[in-house]
Structure formats: C-alpha cells, structure tokens
C-alpha cells in the first residue's frame, strides 16, 4: 500500500467538501493517498449566536489542537474563520487560488436586495453583514441565525426541504424573506441555483479572507516530504498577497470576525489595492477607505493592511465600529 497523509476536517458538508477538494489536489500533485480525520469543534456543538461564542476561531481551535497533537498531518480551514494571530507551532503552508469572494443573497420569490419588501426579515449570523445591510437599507429586520448552509437556506420561505445534515438550529423552517451566505460556500456545495443576487462589494465588502482556504501544517512540516513540496506548489502567490493585506488590516484594527469590519484586496496591473469598511453594528455609521501599493511581496501586502488600518483608526474607525 502506498504512503498516505491524514487530513483533518470539521464534519459539516461544506467543510468535508472543501477538505476533499484540497486533499484530492494535493494527492494528485504528491502521489500520496489521503485519509480523512473528522474532528468535532466547539462551533459545531455549542448553540447560541456566533458573535457571543467569540466568533473567530470557534471552528478552528479543536482542529488545530488535533494537528499539534499529530492526530493529522494537515488541516483545511475556511481562512475567514481563522484568528489573525498564528498559533506557535503551526504554519499556513498553502493558500490555494480563491473562490468567489462575494456575499450572496438567497431570497424568496427570487427578489433582489432592492426588491425585498419594506421590513423584510433577513437572516445572518455575521455582524459585518448585518451592519452593511442596515447601512444600505435601514428598514430591514436582521435575524441572528446559525447552522450549516442547508439549514440556513431552509429558513427562507419557499426553499422547502433542504439537505440537512443534523446541524444546530434546524427546527425552524420558512420564517425569513432571505439569508446572506458566502458565495464561495454555495458554489463549493453546488447550491448556486439558490443565489438570487451576488452582492456587489460596493454594497457589501466581504470578510477578510472570504472565499479562500487555508491549509495548515506543523511548523516542522507535515512529516511527508512529497506533501510539503505539493503544498508549496499549491500555494497561490496572488491570493496569498490579497488575504495577507486583508488580515493585517483586521489584526491592526484588533477586530475578530465578530466585529463589523469588511476588507477586500485585488491586484490591478502591478499594484495591490485594498478596500476596507468599518461599520457601527446598527449600520448608522460607516467608514470606507482604500489604499494601494506595489504588488511585490507578502511583506508589502501586510504593510498595506497595517497602514490603511492605522489611518482609519486615526480617523475614528474604532468609534464608528463600536470597538472603542
């Protein structure tokens, strides 16, 4: 039997789909077999609002501990779920090319964001999405929701029976006019048909790192030379620069993903452009800024994120976002 590497994943449909895709790519590059190790995380078992659970890292901690304990050789995360501080002993060995970065509106009767009725009920567990929605349309009613993608879709009137895989919050069905989900997750699960509208980043900036996967190993490597070489090959330089800028901005603002901060970087010619927004949680105030630098290295990308955050802080971003 040929040598195998062990990849750790959460058990949700989205996590196993993402992990399966990444592991398959790495298996093809490295010539190794794959063994999948399912790890239950606090975010999968604890009910309640994601914001009150501490937001960032709630899905990652158990998986990372398993990796540190050598229970697996590699862990696959949604990058937007990872805290900005990298734990000692672990390294993000590869960030593959990014999926769609946008947030997606999934609504009843195919209504767009502008067509939803006055006072429409929209579900999201993200303060960032809620704040930007309210900044755009203050009449909307935001409902805090949890659960996997099919569970959340099932909350929309008329979406009907969904592919529920036993997640929290699945008892309520059809009580909302719409939900907001990451387009990347919908596409990875083959559920794009439920997307009514891809929200323009001009209306809603995504979470830092949204649409990107993070493949994490121990600092000393995975224990498989061919896997380490495959990870180096799988890393996408442009995606890494973009997400490093976004995460450096978030770290400088000292805001976890439970804070209403959006950021999106893109490469324009030979420049890296970073856009960011800080919002009051009720959408009453927003501060939107952008900056650019030469797209030359991860270090310059991180510096761009830090300097844009510092200028936003100087202009009162922490007060706007309710972090002060």
TrEMBL record:
Binds 1 dipyrromethane group covalently. Signal peptide: none annotated. SUPFAM superfamilies: Periplasmic binding protein-like II, Porphobilinogen deaminase (hydroxymethylbilane synthase), C-terminal domain. Residues 5-220 form the Porphobilinogen deaminase N-terminal domain. Its EC number is 2.5.1.61. Keywords: Porphyrin biosynthesis, Transferase. It catalyses: 4 porphobilinogen + H2O = hydroxymethylbilane + 4 NH4(+). Residues 242-313 form the Porphobilinogen deaminase C-terminal domain. PROSITE patterns: PORPHOBILINOGEN_DEAM. The modification S-(dipyrrolylmethanemethyl)cysteine is found at residue 257. Gene3D superfamilies: Periplasmic binding protein-like II, Porphobilinogen deaminase, C-terminal domain. Its cofactor is dipyrromethane. The keyword Transferase applies. InterPro entries: HemC (IPR000860), Porphobilin_deaminase_cofac_BS (IPR022419), Porphobilin_deaminase_N (IPR022417), Porphobilinogen_deaminase_C (IPR022418), Porphobilinogen_deaminase_C_sf (IPR036803). The porphobilinogen subunits are added to the dipyrromethane group. Monomer. Belongs to the HMBS family. Tetrapolymerization of the monopyrrole PBG into the hydroxymethylbilane pre-uroporphyrinogen in several discrete steps. HAMAP family: Porphobil_deam. This is Porphobilinogen deaminase. The gene is hemC.
């Amino acid at each position: 039997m040929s040598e195998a590497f062990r990849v750790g994943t959460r058990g949700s449909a989205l996590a196993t789909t993402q992990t399966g895709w990444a592991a398959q790519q790495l298996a093809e590059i490295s010539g190794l077999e794959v063994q999948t190790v399912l790890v239950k995380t606090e975010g999968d078992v604890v009910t309640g609002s994601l914001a009150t659970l501490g937001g960032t890292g709630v899905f990652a901690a158990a998986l990372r501990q398993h990796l540190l304990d050598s229970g697996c050789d590699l862990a696959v995360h949604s990058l937007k779920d990872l805290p900005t501080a990298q734990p000692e002993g672990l390294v993000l060995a590869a960030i593959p090319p990014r999926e769609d970065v946008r947030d997606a509106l999934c609504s009843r009767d195919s209504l767009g964001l502008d067509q939803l009725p006055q006072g429409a009920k929209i579900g999201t567990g993200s303060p960032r999405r809620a704040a930007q929605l309210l900044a755009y349309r203050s009449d909307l009613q935001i409902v805090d929701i949890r659960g996997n993608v099919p569970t959340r879709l099932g909350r929309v009137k008329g979406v009907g029976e969904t592919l529920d895989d036993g997640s929290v919050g699945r008892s309520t069905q059809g009580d909302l006019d719409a939900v907001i989900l990451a387009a990347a997750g919908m596409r990875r699960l083959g559920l794009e048909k439920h997307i009514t509208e891809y929200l323009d980043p001009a209306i809603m900036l995504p979470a830092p790192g949204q649409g990107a996967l993070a493949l994490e190993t121990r600092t000393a490597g995975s224990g498989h030379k061919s896997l380490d070489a495959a990870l180096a090959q799988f890393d996408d330089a442009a995606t890494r620069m973009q997400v490093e800028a976004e995460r450096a901005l978030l770290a400088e603002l000292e805001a976890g993903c439970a804070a209403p901060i959006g950021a999106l970087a893109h490469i324009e010619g030979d420049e890296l452009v970073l856009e960011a927004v800080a919002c009051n949680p009720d959408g009453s105030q927003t501060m939107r800024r952008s900056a650019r630098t030469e797209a030359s290295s991860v270090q310059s990308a991180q510096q761009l994120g830090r300097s844009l955050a510092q200028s936003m802080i100087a202009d009162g971003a922490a007060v706007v976002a309710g972090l002060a």
